[in-house]
Amino acid sequence: MTRSKPPSSGHPGNRSSGKPQHTPRETSKGGGGPRGAQGAWLYGLHPVTAAWTNPERRVHRLLATEAGRAALDGALATARTAGLSRPGLTIVDKTELDRLMPPGAVHQGVAADVAPLPDVGIDDLCNELAGESQAVIVVLDQVTDPHNVGAILRSAAAFGARAVVVTERHAPETTGVLAKSASGALEAVPLVRVTNLARSLAELQQAGFWSVGLAESGKGTLAQLDLTGKTVLVMGAEGSGLRRLTMERCDVIARLPTGGPVGSLNVSNAAAVALYEVARLRA
């Protein structure tokens, strides 16, 4: 997915585009940005490796323990081979990383201070996918837990979804917690923030997408639908589910065939099952 670029900083690792400029929306609010970061800290081997080797990601600093440095050898070599402009690595001890990271962060001895990724908007998605006959996008209606959104990004990457769309409000900031849960998928699957979800769904429908809302009230299951074209999977928050306006904007409401003593799934698990079902039907 081609991302719209923020104003150029002159950094050699950034690429420019002729598109209108957008303001990056990733921030370090919500406990994800430890002390001393110019941007936001990503931590953990997979998120840091993915960010370090992503040409669209600008990196301010890289910290690692001796063990973490060894684990990063492959990523460091990849970035060098690709000619990416990267800062030098600073060796620190584990206690220093523990002090800098959020309480309980599983940093695996590595952390990177990074700038936000360039924005991707609904218009970018529609333009990028205009010539494709099949594509899947996941839309989240006020899903607020960063662990869930990160896990959904990971499933989206695994099953070939092209983007995850969230609301500007009532959605988690792009912090180290979300990135760690995404296990590197934040660099591969655009996280698109929109102000008006119903209007964004309408734009996707005008671009040829069929929107499928997932709710227990669905009369049929996801497997009974024709999901071979451009499809949007719309999922709501746990407990409240899809909002009324969101459901009204969907072309159809379907359900997963759950049952037994626990009749529903965590939203990230439900997204993984739904994405697998779409992939299976298209195989």
Features:
283 residues; alpha/beta; four-stranded mixed sheet
List the helices and strands and how they pair.
Blueprint: E1 40-43, H1 45-52, E2 59-64, H2 66-71, H3 73-82, E3 89-91, H4 94-100, E4 110-114, H5 122-128, E5 135-141, H6 146-158, E6 163-167, H7 176-182, E7 191-194, H8 197-206, E8 210-214, E9 220-221, E10 230-236, H9 244-249, E11 252-255, H10 267-282
Parallel strand pairs: 2-3, 5-6, 5-10, 6-7, 8-10, 8-11, 9-11
Antiparallel strand pairs: 1-4, 2-4
Please, how many helices? 10
What share of the residues does DSSP label as strand, in percent? 15-25%
Averaged pLDDT, please?
87
In helices, the fraction of residues equals 25-40%
From the alpha carbons, calculate the radius of gyration and give it in angstroms.
19 Å
- Cα(first) to Cα(last) distance is 22 Å
Overall form: elongated
How would you sum up this structure, described in words?
- This protein is α/β, with parallel strands linked by helices and 283 residues long.
- Helix content is 32%, strand content 18%.
- The chain has a seven-stranded parallel beta sheet with strand order 7-6-5-10-8-11-9, sandwiched between helices. The protein has a four-stranded mixed beta sheet with strand order 1-4-2-3.
- Helix 6 runs parallel beside helix 7 (176-182) and helix 6 (146-158) runs parallel beside helix 10 (267-282).
- The two termini are 22 Å apart.
